[in-house]
Amino acid sequence: MRRTDREETLLTYATEKSIETGEIPLEEGWEKLRENGICVLVDILQGNASDRRPFGNKGYVSLYTISYRMCSNAGLYDHSKALYDRTKDEIEHVLQHYVVPELNKNKYADEGNAILNKFSHHWENHKVFVKWMQQLFRHLDNGYIANSSISTITSVGLKLFFDIVFVQFKAEVRESLLNAIDTERDGINIDQDLLRSCVEVFPVMGLSSKCTTLKTVQSALNTQPDLSVYESDLEISLLKRTSDYYARKSRVWLEDQTTPEYLTRAEMALKAERNRVKRYLHPSTQSKLLSACEQELLQKYKGPLINHDQSGLRSLLAEDRNEDLRRMFNLFRRLADGLSPMALMTKKFVQSEGSKLLQERRDLIHSLKSKGRKLSSNDPDLIDQLMTLHSKMSRLVLELFDNEAQFQRALREAFQEVMNADTTSDDSNVELLVVHTDRILSGKLKLDEEEVENRLEHCIQLFQFVSDKDLYAELYRERLAKRLLSKKYTSIHAEKSMIVKMKTQQGAPFTTKLEGMVNDFTVGKDIDQTWTAHLNKLRAANLLANRTRMDFSVQVLTQGFWPSQKQRDLQLSHEMRDAKSAFNTWYTERHSHRVLSWVYILGDVVVKGNFGGRSYDMTMTTFQAMALLAFACKKKAVAFPEICEHMQIDEPTGKRVLHSLACGKYKLLDKTGHHRTINCKTDLFESNAIFYSKLKRFKVQMSMLDSDFKRKVNVEIQQQRGFGIDATIVRILKSRKR
User: Fold this and answer.
1) Which of 210, 287, 432, 614 has its CA 20 to 30 A from that of 303?
2) Is 612:689 a contact under the CB 8 Å cutoff?
3) CA–CA gap between residue 388 and residue 458 (Å, rounded)
C-alpha cells in the first residue's frame, strides 16, 4: 500500500474513533500502530521500502492520536503499561532478529572494516528507530513513565542496545577500531566518519547503562557522558596499542635518523594524535593519548636525543639551528623533567664556548711572551667575544626557550664560571671588563648615544656574573677618576647612566663613592668658574703680580669619594706657588672649615715651548712640567741627582719623569748613555735644541708613578672584606644572643 493511501486510512480510523469517543481495544489499536507505524519504520531502516520517509504529517498525527487515545480516554481502560511493555518488546525484537544475526555474519569477516560498517549502520538505524518510537509514544514519557518512576522510552531503547548488541560485539568492534587507527598511523586513509560513529557508542552506552531519564536520543548525545564504559572497553586498549605502536616506531627512527629528523617525526606524530582525538575520539582521551606517545617517543630517549654527538643539542646550538631548537624545546617541555637535560647541556655549551675564548687569549699571551712582547689589557677582543656569546645565548633563551627559568639559571651559572676564570694571574676578566667599559665611556670608540647605551647594557650584563664586584668597583673608580680629571669622557649623562645600572644591580651603597665623584666633578666646575671670575677681577684691578698672569684652574675633590693617592712632594715654580697661594686664600675665606691637600700627580699643565724656532703647546703632568721648566734657564747638562734635588722628588719618581721626557715618543730632553734607559749615576740631561714634531699640540705620556697599583687595590679590597666579615660575625652573635 502506498504511503498516502495508508495515511488516509489511518486518518479516517483515528477520526472515527475520536468522534465516537469510545474505547480503542488494545489488540486493535496495537495492530494499527504496529502495521502502519513500527513495521513501516523497520522496513525503511532495513532497506525494504522504496519510500525513505516513514510518515507524513497525516500519518504521524494519526498514529500519535491512536496511541494517545488508548491511554487517556477518561473513564475507560488505560493501556499505558501494555503499550510501554510492547514498545520495549518491539525494540528488543528488532535488535534480536535483525541486528544481531547480521552482525554475527560479519563478526569474523576478512574485510578490515566489515564489522565496523555493519555496527555503525545498525547504531545509526537504532538511533532513528528509538527517536521515532519516542515520538509515537511521547505521551507515555510525559504521563505514565513520569508517574511510575520507570525508564523512559529512549533510556529503554539505548539500554537494550547495550545489553543485546554492545556487550556481545564490543570486543570485535574495539579490535577493528584499533586496527583501523594503526592503519591510519601508517599513512593509509580510512573512513573517519565511520570510526566516529562507532566510537560514539561507547560513551553513550556508559550513560544509558545507568541513566533512566533520557528524553531523546539527541539529549543522550549532548548530555555529559559517563565514561566508565568508554575507558574500560576502549580507552585502556587504545593507550596500550598506542604505546606498542610508537615503541616500535621510535626504535626504528632512532637508528635511522638524526635528532632533528627524529623530533620532526615525533612532532608530526603528536599533531596527528591530537587531530585524531578531534575527529573521532572523545576529548578526555587527548591528554592520556599524548602522554602515552610522549613516554615512548620522548621520555625513553631524551638522553640519547639531547646528547647525540653529531646532531644533539650542542650541535644545534653551535650551528644556530633555531627552528630545530624551538622544536626540541616545545617537545621536551611536555615531559615532567624534560627541560633539565636541555638546560644542563646548554650550560655545558656556554662553558665550553667561553673556555675556548679564554684559551685563545692564553695562547695569544704565551705567543707574544715568547717573542718578548706583552698583550695590552686594552685589547677588546675577549670582552667583545664574551658579549657576543652572551647576547646570542640570551636572545636564544628569550625567543626560543620562552625565557624559561631553568635556562636562565643555566646561562647565569655558565657565565659566572667563565667570567671568574681568568686567563692568567696578571690578566683578570674583571680588569678587562673595566678597561672595556672605559673605552666606551672615554670616547675611544666612535659611537653615537644609542650605541653607547647599548654597549653599556652589555657591559652591565657581564658585570652581574663577576664575583669580585668590590674589585670591579675599585678599578672602575680609578678609571672614572682619570676620565673626569683628564676630561676624556663621552658625556656626564653616559657616566651617570652606567652608575645607575650598577646601582640597580647592586644597591645604593655600591655606587655611593661613584655618585660622589660625579657630583664633585659637577660642583667643581662651578667652583672653578667662580674662582676664575675672582681671578679675572683681581687682574682687572691690577692686584696680582705679573707671574700669576697664567691661567690656573683647580678641581676640588672630596677625599672620601676619590681613589686615595700617595702624597708626593714637589717643588713648584714661583708662578705656580703664587697661584696656589692665591687659591688657598680665596678658598679658605669661603670654606674656613675645610682643609685642602694638593695632589700634583693628578694635575695637567700646558707648557708653551720653543724648539728650533718652532712653537709647541705641550700637555703634561705637573711633575713633567716642573722638570722641563728646570731646563729653561740651564745652559749646560744637568745630572740626575741634581734634578731630583731641585724638584724635591725621590729617585723612582725622577726616573719615570725623566724617562718620559728623554726616552719617550717626544724627546724634549737630550741625555747621555743608553737611549732607552735611565742611569741615575752617570746620565746627564739637557734641553733638546733640535727637537722637532709635525704636531704643534701634543700630550707627553708618562707611566704611572704607583707601580704597585694592583697590589694596593688588592690590599684595600682584602681590608674591606675583612671589615665586612667582622661586621657579619657580630650581627650573627647578637642575633643568637637575643
Assistant:
1) 287
2) yes
3) 9
| In contact, 544 and 582? CB cutoff 8 Å | yes
At what angle are helices 512-540 and 574-590 packed, to 10 degrees?
110
Residues 6+ apart with CB under 8 A from 281: 199, 238, 289
636 pLDDT higher than 70: yes
Tell me the HSE value of 410 on the side-chain side, using a 13 A CA sphere: 24
CA distance 32 to 59: 11
Q: Which residues make beta-bridge pairs with 160? A: none
Pairing of strands 614-621, 697-699: parallel
CA-CA-CA-CA dihedral for 10, 13, 19, 22, to nearest 10:
-120
617, 608 contact by CB (below 8 A): yes
Sign of the alpha-carbon dihedral angle for 574, 575, 577, 581 = positive
Tens digit of each residue's pLDDT (9 = 90 or more) over 75-98: 456 788 888 889 999 999 999 998
Produce one character per residue of 284-293: b if its CB has 16 or more CB atoms within 10 Å, e if not.
ebeebbbebb
pLDDT band at 21 (very low <50, low <70, confident <90, very high): low
Residue 408: pLDDT over 80: yes
Q: Which of 459, 478, 561 is nearest to 519 (CA)?
A: 561
The b-or-e profile of 338-368 (16+ CB within 10 A means b, else e) is bbebbbebbbbbbbebbeebbeebeeebeee
Residue identified by cell 528507530 is: 129
Give the strand order in the sheet containing 614-621: 604-611, 614-621, 697-699
Backbone angles phi, psi at 605, to 5 degrees: -130, 135
CA 200 – CA 227 distance, rounded (Å) = 11
C-alpha cell at 380: 677588546
Output the CA–CA distances (angstroms, integers) from residue 73 to 18, 77, 589, in the order listed.
10, 8, 125
* Residue 253 to residue 246: CA distance in whole angstroms: 10
Do residues 325 and 396 touch, judged by C-beta distance below 8 A? yes
